[in-house]
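Sorry to interrupt, but I need a hand with the structure work. Could you write out one complete protein record for me, on any chain you like? Just paste the record in under my message, thanks.

. . .
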Amino acid sequence: MATVSDVKDEPGQPPALTSLSLAEAAQQARSREQIITPFDVSGGVDEQGKPKAIDYDKLVDTFGSQRIDKPLLERFEKVTGHKPHRMLRRGLVFSHRDLNLILDKYEKGIPFFLYTGRGPSSDSMHVGHTIPFEFTKYLQDVFDVPLVIMLTDDEKFFHTPKLSLKDVYEFTIQNAMDIIAVGFDMKKTFIFADTELVDGGHASAFNTNVREMGKRTTINQIRGTFGFNDSNNIAEFNFPAMQSATAFATSFPFIFGTDAKKVAKVPCLIPCAIDQDPYFRQCRDNAPKMGYLKPAIIHSVFLPSLRGSESKMSASDADSSIFLSDTDKQIKKKVGKAFSGGQDTAELHREIGGRTTVDVPFQYLTFFLEDDDELERIRVAYEKGEMQSGEMKMACTKELQAYVGGFRERRKAVTDEVRKEFMRPRQLVFRGMPDEKQRQEARSRRIKILEEELERLKRED
């Protein structure tokens, strides 16, 4: 194909404005690369202006992570004695950094902890938000390890001009209760809101790690990683240090003990959607400089929008998402409007079959239908034209109604008292937990912090 440099300018035209160059410019204007950041997710646009699905293979290459392959899955099953979760089996949890090292340590009896989180941007989560949490619960059950869940109310406040601190905190409370309803073990799980931890007198060690991480992170690194510019506020530039600090066990002496040298060796595994990877690339770069292990990461794909696989579900777009608060009737209506991979007519569909690779209802079944054999039966029938689009949507609706219905029942049992206990800084119960002497030291330290805070409040009065 000829390019601008190959063709001379046409008579009367300014340089580089030939018919060919104008066509190339228009083509470039229509096309756009995919964007995957913590703040923006889209699959890009091709030369014809058509939206493209998210290319996860390209993400693995761009981010420099590793694919979760069959040998790693076989080793996971051998080491844990558990069948890999359906998301692992189907490539929905698809990429990692150092998962093999976590398996090495688990084999040797070395304890580790899990860390995941949520940015509370609405008062109800959608089913796409539950994907990392459901998988995290599976990991907690399989490995029998403690879990820390960070609710980044401060980050949502910093990044969203229309939200007040009061708005975000109210979202935080509701989201915490939704997360608890996934089924986490209270004895092994600590959930915290950033503002509560920092303002509540338990963040001395946490803040030390924030400062150490912040000192080692440059403005240029943040600009390059997140695409920030002069219009971003200074709090946004600092926040990555906050998100990184949670990956270090020393940030939580009330869980892991006060022996900083010993606790610094406790590894961390972070299950998250791949758009969160930029935060932890920064963390992994700086962790060794702070005397810590690099956190391991395991990435999941996004649950597609109801409109198609070129974007993910979004809490800010009700028509793109199935919310955990939706009724059965709402779920049925939304799935009925979902993007279909079926053909234009029933006759043509029977002749050439449907396209499961773009069919949103089928994609949802890959996330939520547990039975591998039934999923394969549906795939084959749809691609052969033996199952119509309406039948596919009925199957998807049934599965989602059961999933959301089960959540609604569990959510009823989550009282505010239950939430407060999950969010109370406390000793968790797990293999390799601190001994009684360390726990007593941690309790004494917490009491001292609270007494100092009480004295400060008295002086202010």
